[in-house]
Request: fold
Amino acid sequence: MILLLCVLPLVGLILGWTVRWVYAKFQLSSSEQKAERIKQDAVKEAEAIKKELVLETKDQLLKERNQQEREFRDRRGELQKQERRLIQKEDNLDNKLAVLEKQTQAIADRERGLNDREAVLGEQENIWKQKLEEISQLTAEQAKQLIIQSMEDEAKHDAQVLLNKIEQEAQLNAEKKAREILVTTIQRIATEVTSDVTVTSVSLPTDEMKGRIIGREGRNIRTLETLTGVDIIIDDTPEAVVISCFDPVKKEIAKEAMERLIMDGRIHPARIEDVVQKVTKDINQVIFDEGEKVLFDVGIHNMSQEGIRALGRLHFRTSYGQNVLQHSKEVAIIAGLIAAEIGANKAIAHRAALLHDIGKGIESDGEGNHAEIGMEVARKMGEDPRVVNAIGAHHNDIEPCCIESIIVQIADAISAARPGARKETIDNYIKRLENLENIALQFEGIEKAYAIQAGRELRILVNSEQVSDDRAVELSRLITKKIESELRYPGRIRVTIIRETRVVEYAR
Reply:
C-alpha cells in the first residue's frame, strides 16, 4: 500500500510531462505549417509583384521608344527642311554669281570703250590747244598762270564768303546753345551781392559803454584784441565801435562776443575770455553746419571733416562782393549742368567746382595762392586726381589735364561774369573801357571807337575808302584776337565794325 502511494505521483508526473511534450510537438508542427503557408503566400505575392513590375517596365520602355521614334521623325523632318532651304540658297547664290559675272563683263567692256574715247579726246585736246595758242598768242604755261591767278582770286573771294557764312551760322548755333545753357543755369541761381569789407561796426547803447569796453588801463580792450586777433578802433563815432581784421571768421567772433558782452553788461577780462570761448564754439558749429548744408544742397557726400569746415569758413568770405560759399555752390551747379550737356563726368565736375575755392577757407601762413593751397588740401583729403587738377587749374596756374578742369574754368567764369554777380570800382571800370578803345584805334583805317554797354561791346567806325567789306571782316577778327591776348575781362566782348558810304550833294 505504501509502495503504491509512492509510485502514483511518479506516474502522474511522467504522464503530465508526456502530455506537455505531445502538446508542444503539436504546437511546433502547427507553427511550421503556418510559416510554410506564409512563405508560400509571400513567394506568390513576390511573383505577382515581379510580373507587375515587368509589365510596367515593358510599358515604359514601349512609351519611351515611341517617344524617341516621334522625336527622330520630327528631327529628320527639320533636317530635310533645312536641306531644302540650303539647296534653294545655293541655287540663288549661283544665279547671283552668274548675274555678277555678266555685270563685271559689261563694266569691263564699258571701261575699254571709255579708254578708247579718252584717247580720242586727248588727241582732240592737243589740236584745240594748238589752235588756242595760235589765236591767243599765249603759250600753254602762260595761259595756265593766268587761269591759276584768276582761280586763286576767285577762290579767295569764295573762301572769304564761305568763311563769313560759316562763322555766322556757327555763331548763331553757338549763341542759341549757350543761351539755353546760361538761361537754364541763371534761372536756378539767385545770390545776393555783399560788401567786400575788412571792417565792421558794433552799435552801442550809449557812449559811456566805450569806457567800459576799454576798461581800467585798457585791460578789457587788450584782452579782447588778444583773444580774437582783431583791431578794435574806438574813436569819436557816436555810439559805435569799429572792428578791423582781414580774417572774416575772427572778425565775426569779435563782433558776436562784443555784442554779447554789451547785452550782458559784465565786461572784465575773465568774462571776456569766457564769452570769446563760447562764441568761438558757436561760430565753429555754424561753420560746420554751413559746410554740411551746402554739401546737402548740391548732393555731394563722403566729404572729410576738414573739407566740411573749410567749406563752412567760406560762408564768411567775400570776393568782389560775392559770397565765396554761394559762389562755389553756384559754380558747382553750373558745372554739373554743362557736364551733363556735353557728356562729361558730372560727379567729378560737380565736386571739383564746389571745392575750387576751398583754399580760401584754410588758415595758412605759408606762401602760395588759394589754388595751390586748395590743391594740397584736396590731395590730403584723398580726392580724385582730376578734382585736384581742376582746383589748381581754374586760374591757369597749372595745365588742365581733363575736360572736367575746363568745365570748372568755364563755370567759374560764368558765375563771376553773370549780371549782378560782382561789383567793380569806377576806376577799374573806366580803365577797362579806355583800354578797349585804345586797342581798336591802333589799327589802320579806324576813325572812331566807342566802348558801350558797360564794356560788353566795342563799336568801331571805319573809313569806307580805306577799308573794304572783306577787310572789315578780317579787321574785326584781328581786333578780337588782340583784345583776348592783352586784356583780362569777365564774360565776352562784342566787336561791331560799321562801314558806310555817304554821298552828299546840294541843289542850288
Remarks:
- Residues 190-196 have pLDDT under 50 and may be disordered.
- The longest strand covers residues 446-452.
